[in-house]
Amino acid sequence: MKKLASIFATAALLSVAALSAAVPAVTHAENPIVQTSFTPDPAPVVFDDELYVFTGCDREGNNDFYYMTGWQCFSTKDMKNWTDHGRILEDESFSWCNKNDAWASQCIERNGKYYFYFTTTNKGGGGRAIGVAVADSPEGPYKDVLGKPLCGPNWDYIDPTVMIDDDGQAWLMFGNPKCYYVKLKEDMVTLDGKIQNFDMNSQAFGQGKNGSAYGEGPWICKRGDLYYLVYAGFYGSQGGESICYSYGPSVTGPWKFGGQITDQSNCFTTHGGTIDYKDHSYLFYHKNGLKGGGTFNRSAAVDEFTYNSDGTIPKVKTTNEGPAQIEALNPFERVEAETICWCEGIKTQKDSNNSVNIGNIKKGSYIKVAGVDFGEGADTFTACAGSADSGGNIELHLDSKTGPIVGNLKVGGTGGWTNWQEFSCDVSGATGEHDLYLVFNGGDNFLMNVDWWQFDGPGAKGAATDPTYIFKSTFEGKLDGWSDRGGATVAATQAEAFNSEGSVYCSDRSASWMGVGKNLNYKFKAGESYSFSANVKYTEGDPTVTFHLTLQYTDSSGETQYEKIDTQDVIKGEWVQLANTSFKIPEGAKNMLLYVETEGDSDDTTPATNFYVDDIFAAIDGTVIEGAGQPDIKVIPGDLNFDEKVDTFDIIEARKALIINMNDGGKVDAKVLKAADVDKSGSFNVNDIVQMMNYVLGKTKGFDASQNPAPPAVSVVNPAFIGANILRKSGFIK
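The structure assignment produced for this chain is given below.
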């Protein structure tokens, strides 16, 4: 009776597909972008080839209001690793500013100077005010050139945003509950005219619980021919702030409400900013995302989005993963220790030379640095560290904090936390691109402070590599950045190998979609084609199993999609290659995951096949990658269920295959079609079913390729009816 269940396989496969759609990519939380402090009100800006973000700093602890103690600065070149430049101003840096009132800010460059506009409370009374500070570099030091507010005091005056238009005119905007605007003179510290405010009507700013949807936190920018005013708003009847926007033909409008960009915040307020960087578009905002976070302890986050073809901004799905990395980090140049993708148990601080370093380090603290490209390899690691105690160790792990250790640096006591000394250790096994984890170990006290680190070795010399290949994962005793998909067990092994001595073994698979996966990084572009190859083998179970090399990705609407790169029937005990020399990544694809899986079984209770994978390579479009190849699987004509005999059950399978083939455009497994083409016509049609039935009824001794008439016209007939009619005429059903 188990064979009869195959008639209903479609329903079972739908259940498997539903489960598969719920499986996340192999990802790690990397939003919020900073974990060493609270970072509300992010304001992004690009200076040269680096993206900076300026934030406030919510006071740590159980707060009952927005107590903000200063302003901070961070920068990135790859959208994953952020360098902390420390606190650039304190809440009381200037004589006229009140304590705990370091509210939202924005920075802009003009004529070689950096102008930092910020919100505070005027110590002399009258309300909040917009101030301006000036520096020679983004990181400061900043000076108070006015000694007083630039705008205000006025309780409405908060959250400045600034831009310089194409004609050179600078504009400053701010305000809650109205949006105010004013021109700035070229010196950027003098108002050029009267402060005005926009007509806050619903056509321009949407409908919200307070009238228009506009609330606070304006962000002004231009892209193409359109001007955008992004802001925190109370959209519709929602109780918390979401990010909304309006757009128009000039810096002062007239504005047209564009809609809601994000859903309402999980910490009541939000503060948005959009920016283009290295041909990508990003939305910055803040949320509750760290331990101890909440309404008054907020953290900066960022996600990538794509503008609609008409220039409007789509609804952006906020994530815990953040955007993809857009270039690798070079470990052979000095890397500041405060360059971090994610960390736990770490704080940043400045020493007496105003240089930022990491401290507060105890046993178990760690830093993740994403996408580190070791190239041809590293053989030495050096760190500049200090310790007023006995020091500790920096373990260098690849791909996870418990991943392979490629080096172990011993840091001794130096007589002071910032009495810097250089320490070095040997490194082995660090080649190619990996996430690097610096895991700290030692005694129970504080261990050390670290100022910077750097690798050396063949990769630093620019050793020639084959530009054809994007990555080669050979699994010689390590996972090469691959991991489980959906909860399977994945481990390096020497039990089987296609090449050399190692491979990866995937086991404990309770479903076919559980497998071996790897996130594709910035080197893979949506809309472009690549060559992929993987070699697979299994040693237990059915005589053949269907394997897929699959791409999982998020489309432009935020939905998870799946594309088969290649599918092959694998014979038990043999290595088979899954390969496609020109697979095009779909347009708009993000959060891409490459993985190996097997065909779904109709019986969900049966564990899926354990298997081995070796030599998973990716290369430029058109590359023929050597591998195990695809065997010509032997099939018995008419044996559609592959039980090595032809009987009634095969006719049922043939009828089902014919219906699928005619209704769904030929979506039938190639091996099934090969077995079903009993008359060797090169295609599967009704004549094949007739010959199978005659054979099963004993009317013929085999299949005759000469009895190969053209199939009857069936375009106006239900194929299910044809199948039933054939069976009826042949005496199988009444």
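Interim note for the steering committee: Confidence is low (pLDDT under 50) at residues 1-27, 601-605, 709-724, 726-734. The first strand starts at residue 43 and ends at 47.
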